[in-house]
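Each letter names a residue; structure tokens follow underneath. Both lines appear below:
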Amino acid sequence: MNIKDRGNKKWTSLMLVEHRKRLQELKENEGQLEKPELDEQLKAAINYKLIKAFEEKLKLEIIHFKINRFKKNRGYLAAINTKDKYILLSQNHKKEKIFLENLIDLKIL
């Protein structure tokens, strides 16, 4: 028995316009994530690791939030800008600017 299911198409004639709009919004926002809020202890631990990695030139793995996604990068700290609150992560002769407010987690490798 082979039944071809048409998904939501079979129900659209019974749905209100508002329901269809809301279903479309849900599909569009399905993959988006919210940036988590870090507590002060975790921020202090990240700050400590950043300073240690910068002074000792250690390799890092950084998880940060960028455009509704979590992104993972590895590299060395090229600079820490405390005025504008960002770091420069050097990886394979490229430098990426990561704002401190977007840092989620940090590991020293």
User: Anything to note?
Assistant: The CA atoms of residues 29 and 68 lie 10 Å apart.
